[in-house]
Batch of 4 targets.
Target 1
Amino acid sequence: MGGGRGEKPSDADETLHLRVEALRADETMQLRVPAPPEPPAPGGGRAERRRSTRSAGREKARAASAVAVASAAGRLLGPLAPYARRIAPYARRLKPVYPRPGRTGWRRWMPSWRQWIGAVLTSCGLLGAFLVTAYAMTDIPSNLNSYATQQDNIYFWSDGTPMARTGWVQRQAMPLKDIPEDVRWAVLAAENESFYSDPGISVKGITRALFRTVGEGDTEGGSTITQQYVKNVYLTQNQTISRKFTEAMISLKLDNKMSKDEILEGYLNTSWFGRGTYGIQRAAQAYYGKDVGKLNASEAAMLASLLKGAGLYDPTLSKANHARAVERWSWILDRMVKIGKLSPQERAKYTKFPDPLKTNPLYDTGEQSDYLVELASQYAKKSGHLTDKQFDLGGYQIYTTFDRKRERALTDAVTKARKEAKRDDPAVAKNGHYGAASVTADGRILAVYGGPDHRKQGYNESNATTVPAGTAFLPFVYAAGLEHGVHKTRGGPATQVTPDSVYDGDDGVPVTTPEGPYWDRSGKKVAAHNDGGKSYGQITLREALAKSVNTPFMQLGMDAGLDKVRQTAEESGLLASSIGPQVPVLSLGNSTPSAIRMASGYATFAADGNHTEPYSVRRITRNGSPIALATPRPGRAVGATVAEEVTEALTDSFQTAHPDAAAGRSGVSGKAGTTDKDTASWYVGTADSVSTAVVVYRIDLAKSLEPLPLKGLAGTSANSVPYALWSAATGLG
């Protein structure tokens, strides 16, 4: 071999040959491999030694952990070892061996019957474990679907007939006890006759629905009533497999938590019946104009048919719908007989299909009724102590005091007056307003006119406090003087005043106090003036009221005390916020009461001096259960004798101004009211213990609430528009 001692070294491009002598058979060749170099001693520094120590520690910890795990597994699995040894042979047999030995052709690839059984049992075990886990992990939602629980509020006239409804949906929940059994079983016969015995779900129905969903891309019914109820109140209407599965799990739990009656009640109150209605109560009203408690089995069967799809079974929509509805109606009745819930004799009575009403009688609010609903809802919340949130959830039945006939008469009269004004002078009529209200002696509001259309003008003309009462306020001054007497000296005793007490009725008479003339802030004497500057000389208070003479009452207010005038007006029904400044013109009507409050004030005199706050709701229920209502009680405003004397003077006023209308009529009193700047014209009076106030005025709502001159809109004293409206509303016109 080259490169030995004494030999010249090989060049880089030369080949090195290793010469090995031939070995004998008994010789052994040994190849000595040098040992690998040992790692350097840990003398490279303190950090290197620390890293080495930590690494060794981690290795020991991992080893110890592995030993511990193995030991624990051994302890746990040790007792199972005998069983595992017994099962092992069978498991080996179930282990698929492909292709199967001893078979030929396609049979080599088919599992054995043992393998089939094993696969089925394993699948069933896994499926069972999955369902148990899913059931345990599924919770019944704590909050119901807000849309499913939303109800409408329905308002009724004083005669109990529906007036209007409010809310996003037409739904009124009813207790199950108030739903007849024929109605319940008509629904059960149509939808789920085994409801009281099933576990809350239908396996057959779910399987069929899943098959159609997977195979044909849609879903089908087959749900129990419990499942339908869960879908209505907890879930969405999305037709998906996941929603169907969740529905089934919740249904199982709900069936164990709630009674069957509770579930049925919820279902009947949340199901869709078409015509914008949810729940059997609203459906009964929408299709037959009656409450659910008055339905018979035939009508119930027709409504039950709608649950299959109102768009296909509402008989009023088309001839095809009618034919389908008749067929299903008959089938449901026969089904009720089959399950023993309707006798054959009863079934024999129902041979004619119960055609429903052509349209839903439960109309939305509109035009004038909006003003009625506004007043009633405000009063209902206040007197029923209901928050806005509670009221908006719905379910309330509000029985109002509004009289349908009076409301119609008042609305027709004002509508006619508006048209005539627009025809005669469109520019003036454009800003015209007509407020009116009728209030009984016991405080019930029977009718109001709030405006032409609430959706265009939310401003309620019957409840507005924007224009002065004018001389329509004089009866309150008269009552204050009769009730409290007058003071001729400061601090002296009161002197009684009677209807026959005489005052100066001349125009321009200065207003005096016990100390002398009354001076205004500009340093001028204050004087009273009559309409047209007319003087009447010495005149009794009763005659002055009958003829609407201003000057005696301006002085009477000063003599009785403006504080007493204010007190009497407020106790009679006028709001404190509407009373004008406490200056001499207070007696001439600088206050701005609404038509409702003026009618209420005059009603106090008709009620022998007892005042009852005006109210628009007499009863409230929620889903049939009564709500406590703080109904106003009468309180003494003025003495009965004073009230009678005021009424007599107002009767004289009515008879003097309208002798023809007063002929042959008793119990009618009233008075016109005018203002200093001709910004309002009133007529307020009482007929048959019902006081009605009408006011005509002009305001440009686009600019301000400042009253404008009437410019003939209210007619003349001989042909007064307010009086014409008042007489029409009271039946005297």
Note: Residues 606 and 652 are 15 Å apart (CA to CA).
Target 2
Amino acid sequence: MGRLAFLAHSENENTRHRGALRATTGWRIRIGTVAATAAMVSAGIVLGAGPAAAAPAAIKLTSVSCPNEIVQGQLSGCVTELQNLLNAHGAGLVVDGQFGPSTLYAVREYQAATAIAVDGRVGPATKSKLYATGGSAPAPVNLQSSSCPANVVQGDKGGCVSELQRLLRHHGYAVDVDGDFGAGTASAVRGFQSSHGLTADGQVGTNTKRALYDTDESPSTSVDLRSASCPANIVEGESGGCVATLQALLNGKGQQLAVDGEFGPATLSAVKAFQSASGLIADGQVGPNTKAALYANIGGGGGNGAPAPINLNSASCPNEIVQGQRSGCVTELQSLLNHHGADLAVDGDFGALTDSAVRDFQSEKGLSVDGHVGPNTKAALYGAVTPPSSPPPGGGYGKILDVAAAEAGTVEGSARANSYGSSVGLSLSTSDYAWCATFVSWVAKQTGATSYRNSYVSGWVNQARAGNYHLSVTTDPQPGDIVAFDWDGGSDFTGGNEHIGIVRTVSGSSLTTVEGNTSNPNGGSDGVYVKSRGTNNGYDVVFIRVR
């Protein structure tokens, strides 16, 4: 029971019991504790639980009837729904609609397991993840497989619909992954079809399926609206990463926008609605007050009020991160420690529990146990998060294919895939942005073949066309070359409908590639996979030679 009590403590409380527990049972005790706790909770014997009263009727967490954040102490149908979802993920809770200590524990365990800020608060990020990770929804089935009908339509249920919903979410549509093709999914399908020049009939046939899988790049949502990278006032007519971030944040507040980086009428309407609901002047201009309101009480990406994460190896972080500091470097540190099994609140504050977790990690990895996060600890935090070892850097263009091919099978959202972002200064989950060009950048960094790095396909194409960074365009593709695809045609590589990978084999107009942020040929999660492509399949292709 000491472990449960610990989880309810804040960062500055006494850590003696935690240290004693780990001294005898080891760093990975959390797994065994979860199972034991789940059994006790189910039996009604945790924390003096008595006979359960009838639970309030479940209410969908994303409905207007539920608060933006569901927290300990609440009793409602929203909590009933939360407990049902947590149980679908193996929590073993008594479903009573009461957000007590056992529910708090289960929330924190779920957040740690899915790399969400471990704050015990069920905000937009946790709600979205609970639905997106499926719970009791049917397992996704590749839409292009023989297991799915030629046309997936409203009223259908099953794994094909789960996959459709997962893909729609990847494109920025706020649908629940429940395997049930209802009105909300139909509306999202029509919106997707309209934005991609398809017949907006709500039926998911051959062309819609292809577009769902082929649209592998979208505007990055990693830009902080409050940074100098974005205008002081973001207004209708603008486009790019700042607008994409704005749209993603609005969706987190209940809107249903396509995250396309274009500030059009729909985005303007959503901004005004958000401003009105937040007590701001509804002028549609996203200035300092609107930005602050958008970032207020975000349930993930750094926790409730935590500084935005900063890569530990960047110049913005000190050589040694130590107890007492509060910064985005600490936010990043806590997130990494949670990837390794810690149960920290990600608040950006390096207190006693973070210090204890650092020391536990250092001990487990055979490092000097001093609680100081210096170069060796930083390297271990990033390196050990990525289980299969990387091919050694170096070797130039001749090693590009070897390095890329060694990553085949890496799944999107895994710690391995997330580490690719370090090549372009990103510390985001690959589940949250289009990362095909980031993967190419990572391969380039591993080999040293070129110093160019960019998370956009257009950047790679433009530099190759200009002959910069030892890049050039070639019409004689060879294994190890880079290949860029413009699914819309025109070879302008604009509009967020592009993709990029590494050439594996070439045979006439056919080729195979190694690609990141691409669909699994066998169904399941996106990741790094070998794909079959061509130069006469209705899309434009540019081959890039690295020399």
Note: DSSP finds 19 helices and six strands in the chain.
Target 3
Amino acid sequence: MDIRHTPLRWSGDTYPSTDPAGIYNALADLDQPCFIVVTPDGIGAVSGGSATVEADGLPLLAAAQPLPPQRLGSGAFLAAHQVAQPYMAGAMAGGIASADMVIALAREGFLASYGAAGLLPETIEKALGRFANEIAGLPYAVNLIHSPSEDRLEREAVELFLRHGVRCVEASAFMDLTPHVVRYRLAGLRRDPDGRVVAENRLIAKISRSETAERFMRPAPATLVSSLLEQGLITHDQAALAHHVPLADDITVEADSGGHTDRRPLPALLPTILRLRDSVQREHRYAVPIRVGAGGGLGTPVAVAATFAMGAAYVVTGSVNQSCLESGASTVSKAMLAEAGIADCEMAPAADMFEMGVDLQVLKKGTLFPMRAKKLYQIYQAYDGLESIPAPDRAKLEQQVFRRPLEDVWQECVGYFTRRDPEQLQRAAGNPKRRMALVFRWYLGMSSRWAVTGDKDRAMDYQIWCGPAMGSFNDWVTGSYLKNPSNRRVADVAHHLMLGAAFHTRLTQLRSAGVQIPATAGDYRPVPLETPAHGSPAGMR
């Protein structure tokens, strides 16, 4: 039934407002229905209150149902991860997605992934101990990054997760399946008392390519299952259950993000992966369908709302969290990120996949890292070893980039890998090209470390992972309390992005009904949140 132009009358102090501020407040009262009516003074809006149909009332143009942020996305995601909203803070390696960040978000009902990649096992173990003590029973994830040149690191990370009972892992940068990620998934399989297959170890796979997504959407390959069983790494029961479940519970479609990225546009990539998921589901008929979320480029409520409108079950943020108080990045790095624009990013060689020519997206404003890293890769491609580099080029590297003789850097690499992964040294023995790669990777690895520690002497070499979302976020919060990095609490950012996404979704619903909202009333702006004792924001006031 078309309810437009039905005459309504409001009681009490809920008379429709016609000024932009009043219309905005009515739209932003997301827990209440919102009504757009025609008043003698023009278009008016009112939320909640009591309204009755009366002949001399105001004509109704459109109505919008309550839309709290938790109604966006997938309720199945909320239930599976025991979170309050379909929002996740993705991992940023080297502890930039810190234990403090994970704990702060978990306490407010959000899922966050600890940036374990690149950290020593004892550091990861300390973080897991904090999670057990400070957020017992609350949601969190830990990152497992694919390490094609350092298999031992990936294996030891999975062993650590299994030993500590980590129940949710975010797998990232995988180009193919490895025994380690498959082991993590299968080691949590069992049947419940009713005979249903239960996967206690939840896996969220972050992907940017259809072929990789499909590998995670299908059951674990039989060859890997058999190999794990033969090694005694899974039980016979777990091997028998492997074909009943997909490898991943959730697939995060990663678009133009910071760090490892194929820089694919989300409107092109997400529908493709959704169709792929539906095709795989028709084939396997999983009892619990795979959920597909999305991240990359999500720095404003409008972008988040658009992602949900395209069918995402949940959204994932990254770059914007790096500038927050709880981030493991240095104060200097946070200040640089807070000044970034949408065009201030560039691709540069990645430390973990240097020899393969894989790039990642970093901040270029205020740092020489992208230029210097690209020069290192050019030299790596041109010469067979450190000894082959022409003397003038070598001198430049030692004076401007490494600031020490390359042989000294090599000795530092020997000490590091002797402690952490001796296999790397064995592979470099008698292989000058491999030795050169390890030396160059020293700079790539240390540059991200300098950015984390805030080494002032190395400020021009900071490697700061960053995507265009950072620039759009900075533009959106200009003029608000979130402009200053010292006010950027990671939970505030999460709440505002989700509240704003619900606001803009409601706005779209009304516009589709033919209502033209004044521009000054149609842009969600973040203001400090009131936080009651139970920890959830009271709303936008």
Note: The first helix runs from residue 20 to 28.
Target 4
Amino acid sequence: MGAPPAPVEPTVEEPAADDVGSGRPLLSLALASMMEEVQAHSGGVYLMAADEPVLEMAVTAGLPRAFAAPWERVGLSAPIPVAEAVRERRLVWVGGEEDMARRYPRIAVVLPYPFALAALPVATADTVYGAVYVTWPGSHPTVPSDRERQALTAACERLAVRLERAARENRTLRAEPDLPAAPVSGAGTPGTVEAARMVARLPYGLASLDLHGRVAFANAAAAELLGVQAGELLGTQPWVSVPWLNDPMYEDRYRAALISQHVTSFVALKPPGDWLSFRMYPSKTGLTTRITRARAAAEMVGTLPRADAAASPRLVTISQVLSLAGALTEAVGVQDVVQLVADEVAPAVGSQALVMLGSRGGRLHVLGHRGYDDPQVVERFDGLPLAERTPGTHVLNTGVPAFFESRQQLERLYPGRRDSPDGFAGWAILPLIASGRPVGTCVLAYAEPHAFPADERAVLTSLGGLIAQALERALLYDAKNQLAHGLQAALLPHSLTPPPGIEAAARYLPAMHGMEIGGDFYDLVPTRPLAAAVIGDVQGHNVTAAGLMGQIRTGVRAFTTVGQAPEEVMRSTNRLLIDFGADLFASCLYLRLDPEQGRAVMARAGHPPPLLRRPDGRVRVLDLAGGPLLGIDAEATYPTTEVSLAPGSVLALYTDGLVESPGVDIEDALVGLGELLAENGDQPLDRLADTLVRHSAAAQERVDDVAVLLLRAQPDG
């Protein structure tokens, strides 16, 4: 390897060695030096927080701090360039709006403008002190020059050395005032008065805005066109002081001009029917805005915004972005994501239909769709090999978005689509990339031909990134949920085989939080001559609880099969649980059924008491003798209680998830359950089980798992 490049000498004053702690703004001077050296447009310095893995913005320059407000504090694990630069100890380069949209959708959705960005760590070999970012206008090449890389790297290394010295000398660095824009030259110089007279004579409006969008100057023509006194404009933002400019799209154009440093224009309707044209000329100190009357509105149909028109995708506001992002975080399963994209994202970007695609086993898989009159138009793609040449497979395979402004454009590239029209005339096909890999494709369809300018493509690509993150979580959730249900089904009995003279029904519902798998269990053991029934609840609702539950259920079956009495079964199960060393406890209710004698012998280990509905409809809570929870005391004993079980009687065994919920007294819950059992006890047993679960308030909220086992003594013959 060759020798490292020599440091590039700065062209403006560098902070001196004694700047730290001397009162001079070290960070501001270092940032100004870097920006001047590489001709950057804006930038900022972050410092590491003292007690948490967070970068905190210390100083910015070139643009209002409000533009970077969402990133005032950045966690080191965040998908943000400065955080990535610190994590990987390298320069991170973003070459433009499409690159930003693909890699950092959260930033691109908020700032969908053409600009380039470099982020670097401020670190020595041993310690990270912070990070720096600088940006260039959209006209910057898509890759940095060697000189820019060398200059930025050397400047950050020098800054790190100074911060290391400050730390060694116990000097505290704090945030510094942001760097002001350079003053406008020419103020107070000869010719200024004549220049003002010249501007006043111009036949069009002319206004000057500072970096914060405040009006610093407006000629008489500008005030007349806007319909506001010049004195009322000065010092205000036009979208605040001019009521009919109070629309996010107009502020967005100002932001776009400043960040991209490109000339930007828009038209606006001044009530009742005058269209005005605004053209913004940006510089590093602010904007000069030219205001003229637009040509007749009738000549501009299709080019002017209407009050009732859907907002352009590039004009999605920060509040809309936060709303969309918040909605997507609430999505749990894949169908939730599809529904939220249909309800929230598609309307925001003017789309009328969507398809969500994924892949499995080398084939295309339709995850969901909305807005298609004929579902078969979409569903025929399900199972299509990924090698097939279609827009969806191409985007899924390459990770590159595709935009088709018309049907003719789509059919020119994919002639096969002529045979299967879907009724739409424009498409945005977005790759859904999360954690660096494609997880699916989102197809947004438009009823009319739709142009996709560069900034709109960037916003759509960014939204695809947000959707991808939600879809990745949803796919993982659905996979875990499927695994949980499969495991739960394997651990619980597939069917109940009651002894002659006994009818049985059972229900199990997982908690609504967690993995939807739990430690509640029930079983019916058809041994001869007497059968046994058991219900129990292991702490928690996770895989550990479920696994332990399966072991306990197996143990109870084994101890029952070898002929142990109810109290012995409980003692043996208790010792088994202690021997497992799982540090989990379990409640349990075990009974030996003798339908011929019309009785049941029960043993209880800290479990809720069962309910008995007598043939006459009266219900009582069985106050059984019992012992402590299983898994606490190896020497615990579990006395038994004999209960009469006359023909027509119903025993209701349940876990505490059926009766316990926050804010509800357990005694009141038992009374309510008893009333349900009394009123509905003559129903067929399966319907009765559904009734108890459906009408229990605790079971509806399901903060815990719910298991119910019902046993009915049948009359002879």
Note: Residues 137 and 261 are 5 Å apart (CA to CA).
